[in-house]
Amino acid sequence: MGKHIIVDPITRLEGHGKIDIILNDDGNVDRAYFQVPELRGFEQFAIGRRAEDLPQITSRICGV
Amino acid sequence: MSEQFEPKIVAFFCNWCTYTAADLAGISRMKYAPNVRVVRLMCSGRVDPQFILAAFRDGADGVLIGGCHPGDCHYQEGNYKALRRFHLLKPVLEEMNIEDERFRLEWISASEGDKVQKVINEMVEQITKLGPLDLEPISTPETLDEMLEKEQEIAV
Amino acid sequence: MSKPKVGFYWCASCGGCEEAVVDLNEGVLDVVEAVDIVFWPVALDFKRSDVEAMEDGEMAVCFINGAIRNSEQKEMVEILRKKSGLIVAFGSCSHMGGIPGLANLHDKESIFNRVYHTVPTIDNPDGTIPQVETSVCGTTVELPEFWDTVRTLNQVIDVDYYLPGCAPPVNLIVGAVTAILEGKLPEKGAVLAPDKALCDECDRRESKPENLCIDEFKRPYQIIIDEEECLLAQGLLCLGSATRAGCDSICVKGNMPCTGCMGPTSRVNDFGAKALSAMASVANANDEKDVKRIIGGIADPVGSFNKYSLPASYLHRKVRK
Questions:
Q1: Do C124 and C116 contact (CB within 8 A), yes or no?
Q2: What are B26-63's pLDDT values in tens digits?
Q3: C1-32 residue pLDDT tens
């Protein structure tokens, strides 16, 4: 196995992110993973709220 | 568990009717379950919904509010306020998975010692069947790690 | 003299609080003049390792927005607590849990099930759900552990001050930054906003009747909203009487009822319970049947009264069954 490079956090953008890059023995990229761990569950908790509240609630998915 | 579950019930009784009724029940030697901690307030209208939620948070398995019958409030309309808050708080508790039987409002006049006895015994019986209210304590920076360990055992 | 160092960080949030900082407009230049920003993922390229390399207490203040709902956020705020003299909970989410806090009406299992299995837009034939550790190519790739419960910042680390609002109003941010720079901060634990109800500063306060009585709660689609009259007097569920002032009532100015993002005043512990109490009190009914009818007009009480404050409330999450 080669090197495991972690870029944490990725910056200058909206959202949380982390990049894992795994190099092979020759120093080339073997695998790369891009993580967006910002799960909050809007899909679930928006159910049951008042319809008139949804524009306010869903705009908090991303406020940028 | 060999020990039988003894529910803790917090009762907010108004000074003029229900508290006097509870006194009457005592004087008349009416036996009722000892699971109730009575808090005397001047009026059922003084029962802030915060008191009820704080009681649940601090370990109550049930909360009972006792006030004067409609039209009998010493302060004209305090019990109506209690009634309105009760009906708005009910759906909130239901949504938070707190069973209907755990929160009760009763009109008990000063002469109805027997009703105090009946309501309390009934409530204790129902809540004993339900079991303890397993409300998770709120974490603090000090207790967080311990709570997260427990949480991991429960969660997927 | 070196300038005080400042950090910004976000947790379970939307980025709107970062926008609020940018809303300082040219004012942000004065801030940058006065302080050195040493950590701010949205705008500047500093890594976690840069923060870890700082001395304890090196930052004068760190503004943290967002609720705390996974292990990575916990680790980061714990590091920031060590590296920072003051911690300011910035915005409704870190103050009271905010809108992501509504997830406390559910649990991890049901959220994962919805998001990764049943939501109409998902394409996940293998039924994969996030794993904390995955072994790959002889190394391990890690994801944060998603919690069952959403927490406010002060349930995770010690917090010095709170800047309320979703997002915090610009004038309050300026006020807080100025107070920190001049060393004129109130007692620890204070909310850096006026300690009075929104109704007290609302433009429509003159039209709020002394003895407000509502015969029917209305939903916004049911009426043509008068642009000058008190919204609560029109039957709309406006929480201004239970909510802290300081936002210049921008929602009400825009004909939108207040939904309580600024949280309670200092006299109240549970915002939702107090807002509920205030709304129940104005229902104009004494008879049980009428009470039920009027109160029944309030849809989704738990979400409406705790829209921004569920994790900070006394019950804080749904009881597990």
A1: yes
A2: 999 999 999 999 999 999 999 999 999 999 999 999 99
A3: 689 999 999 999 999 999 999 999 998 888 88
> Which chains lie within 8 Å of chain B at 3 or more CB pairs, if any?
C
User: Contact, B49 vs B89, CB < 8 A?
Assistant: yes
Q: Name subunits touching C (3+ CB pairs < 8 A).
A: A, B
Pick one of 3.30.1560, 3.40.47, 1.20.1250, 3.40.50 as the CATH number of B9-155.
3.40.50
Q: Would you say B120 and B33 are in contact if contact means Cβ atoms under 8 Å apart?
A: yes
Domain match, C32 and C174 both:
yes
The residue range of the domain holding C254 is 198-312
- State the ipTM, two decimals: 0.93
Partner C contacted by A38 (CB < 8 A): yes
Is residue C47 included in any domain, yes or no?
A: yes
Contact with chain A for residue C221, Cβ under 8 A: yes
**Are the C-beta atoms of residues C173 and C20 closer than 8 Å to each other?**
yes
Q: How many domains would you assign to chain C?
A: 3
CA C123 to chain centre: 32
The answer, for A26 touching chain C at a CB cutoff of 8 Å, is no
Expressed in angstroms, the distance from the first to the final Cα of chain A is 40
Residue B78 and residue B43 in contact, taking contact as beta carbons nearer than 8 Å: yes
Interface of C with A in 68-87 (CB under 8 A): 69-70, 72
The residue among C38, C137, C140 with the most chain A CBs within 10 A of its CB, best to mutate, is C137
Q: How far off is chain A from C129, nearest CA to CA, in Å? A: 12
Identity (one letter) of the amino acid at A46? Answer: A
Which of B55, B41, B32, B48 shows the shortest CA–CA distance to B102? B55
Give C314 to chain A, closest Cα distance, Å: 19
Please state, in angstroms and as integers, the Cα–Cα distance from residue A20 to each residue in A6, C40, C74, following that order. 5, 21, 21
d(CA C83, CA A4): 27
